[in-house]
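Complex record, two chains
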Amino acid sequence: MRTRFQHGLDELKEKLLRMGGLAEQAIERAVEAYRKRDAKACQAVFDGERDINAAEREIDELALDLLAMQQPMAVDLRFILAVVKINADLERVGDQAVNIAQRVLDMISSPETEVPVDIPRMAETVATMVQRALESFIDGKAELAEAVLQMDNIVDRIKDEAFVVLVDQMNKYPETTRYSLDVLLIARNLERIADHATNIAEDVIFWVRGADVRHGGAHYPS
Amino acid sequence: MRTRFQHGLDELKEKLLRMGGLAEQAIERAVEAYRKRDAKACQAVFDGERDINAAEREIDELALDLLAMQQPMAVDLRFILAVVKINADLERVGDQAVNIAQRVLDMISSPETEVPVDIPRMAETVATMVQRALESFIDGKAELAEAVLQMDNIVDRIKDEAFVVLVDQMNKYPETTRYSLDVLLIARNLERIADHATNIAEDVIFWVRGADVRHGGAHYPS
């Protein structure tokens, strides 16, 4: 019985990693769509959302099954509940990628404009945050989660700078307003993804450290 | 033992309702700050965020304790996991209220400008969505949750209209760009709150209907 439960936990972990992969792929595709002004890449993001939603439901159901299967130990309970929370964050990373793809579609209909904001670099940073947050959870490394929190400050700063330069650009060249606004909103969407990575990291610290405290640090060195 | 567990479930429900009240209060305060250009009301939103975060942690811990206490029935399991998810959404409603208050602080430093967007009405709609989503959960009424999903479409439309008129305003009066942008971003924050209400409603349909199917409809008529 214990073995079947443990097997289920492994499966849950695997599914969550796969879910993380789908979320990262969604970010990549959205940014590729942005870089290449590519409506087909936008469509790939929209199509991918269905898979992400299905994966979310699967994980929730498996978590329920595991909780119903036997009386889990406190450390396993914390793990399962953390998966449920992180799962919801990953699903919303996918939603943000969809929002970006929608803005890109809008941009494609406007003439291309030079903007002084490096969206691909910002996207790379937030994708790394999602990756590391998930890694910190899977490996139970709270210090890696702390590093994610630090990165969030950097992303906030990039977004604030983008805000200033884009407002400036809109003032100087009103004809670029709509285009600049799309870029600004994409920067906001990326900031939201960073927030989800931060939520995951905070959950890791809370759930993992909690488990740590309750189990004398044997499970999760931090 | 069963009685203590049931008592714990009641406490969990109560705490979640209180959390919902805090989230709604945060929206109200943020909109009051907007309407009155009131920095003190902004500060009240910032202060309230601490209470919301503390309430979130409390609910998570109680959920863990309940799951650890005994082997819950499937219907109770679904209820507890739904609380954990809804709890996270309510916390983020509070985050959005903080974002609005930050934009209001920015607006206060600009001269007041007439904008053709009814933020208070939009805020009222999204606050109602949060309220109804929570009500649908507490009462186990999936049809009320469906109504919340319908309202989300209305909010999306209001936000899209706001987008168009504000871009137009920025083009015509570039000197109002920053102010208009603040309003636009507040409309986006409100839309995000509507998304959280939608998430809650979707969870209600998923968790409650699931419970319904598994228990022959006795617990949650829908």
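Note: Chain B has one domain: 2-214.
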